[in-house]
Design goal:
single chain, alpha/beta, Peroxisomal Thiolase, Chain A, domain 1, 2 domains, 11 helices
Length: 337
């Protein structure tokens, strides 16, 4: 049976490092306050020109991550026949960033689609890539998770709780058809619960509002993301563990079989709580949130790429990728590396 295997990974983060101490110039905060509540020490933000535009677009960051993944996979860019781009904010209202990737990489009219599942975007995208390959619709799929968060943060005391958490970055994976029995995506589980959508969301711009934004919305700060932190933490720790348990059962494996859990990098306290509840030592849970903060759809592919380069993933390893986020949505993938 044809399966979908990750054969290459890559990532890109801006050079501009913003430390916790740097944030004190805009808001009443401290390195101790941020570290204690999130585990984050620094993040990467794209620099901006005099007109406020970032020095790179999201598609350009995604293309850089993709080029690394293509080289790592040992394929040609033109081998890619499907692009899946996960992001919460495309560079323009439409179209999505996937088509810009097709152009930037010089692909041969590859299919392109965008997934807007925020923190779980890469989980859903891997499941979609697996489905495309198993169905015979595609053979080589480029999956990208990418975010520019820095342009949408309220850098004041009003927005402090959100602004300290997020960073910019991109990660990519090449997913390709394989006949190897001991390799590939084994199972995925995907869930949502829309009743909690407004506990973590970005209200504006709005597609059903004339001109899509108003002066009133901007004056009230409703164009900035908002979060019910306690609600998110409570649900995240529960759903992370449920997803891991469910995907392991679906793949007929146990937690003892797992070499590495690669979770969405939302908050170090969440990661630690999940590891404790699952009875897994920190050495079996990948974490890089201290360096990059929360890059939403990009956290898992960045983490996968770093895990490979840190020699923490080896052929034959059983790994779990898992995420929870806005929507609420959550899910996991079980993968034989």
């Amino acid at each position: 049976m044809t399966k979908a295997a990750i054969i290459g990974t890559g990532f890109f983060v801006p050079d501009n490092v913003v430390t916790n101490n740097d944030l004190t110039q805009w808001m009443d905060t401290s390195d101790e306050w941020i570290t204690e509540r999130s585990g984050i020490k620094e993040r990467r933000w794209l620099k901006r020109d005099d007109d406020g535009f970032t020095t790179m677009s999201g598609a350009e960051m995604g293309a850089e991550a993709a080029r690394m993944a293509i080289e790592n996979a040992g394929i040609e860019a033109t081998d890619i026949d499907q692009i899946i781009f996960a992001t919460l904010n495309s560079d323009v209202f439409f179209p999505g960033n996937g088509v810009f990737i097709e152009d930037l990489l010089g692909l041969n009219c590859a299919g392109a689609m965008d997934v807007r599942n925020q923190c779980t975007g890469f989980i859903y995208s891997l499941a979609a890539a697996d489905g495309f390959i198993r169905a015979g619709t595609a053979r080589t799929v480029l999956v990208i998770g990418c975010e520019i968060q820095s342009t949408a943060l309220d850098l004041s005391d009003r927005g402090r709780d959100m602004a300290v958490l997020f960073g910019d970055g991109a990660g990519a994976a090449i997913v390709q058809a394989t006949d190897e029995a001991d390799r590939g995506i084994i199972a995925s589980v995907l869930h949502s619960q829309g009743r909690y959508a407004r506990d973590l969301y970005g209200e504006a711009p709005m597609g059903n509002l004339k001109d899509r934004i108003s002066a009133e919305i901007m004056a009230e700060g409703r164009h900035y993301p908002s979060m019910n932190g306690q609600m998110v933490f409570k649900h995240a720790t529960r759903r992370f563990c449920e997803s891991i348990t469910e995907v392991l059962a679906k793949g007929e494996a146990s937690i003892d079989d797992v070499a590495l859990i690669v979770p969405h990098q939302a908050n170090q306290r969440i990661t630690d709580a999940v590891a404790a509840r699952m009875g897994v030592g920190n050495e079996r849970v990948f974490s890089n949130i201290a360096k990059y903060g929360n890059t939403t759809a990009a956290t898992i592919p960045i983490a996968l790429a770093e895990a490979v380069r840190e020699d923490r993933l080896h052929k034959g390893d059983l790994i779990v990728t898992v995420a929870f986020g806005s929507g609420f949505t959550w899910g996991a993938n079980l993968i034989r590396w």
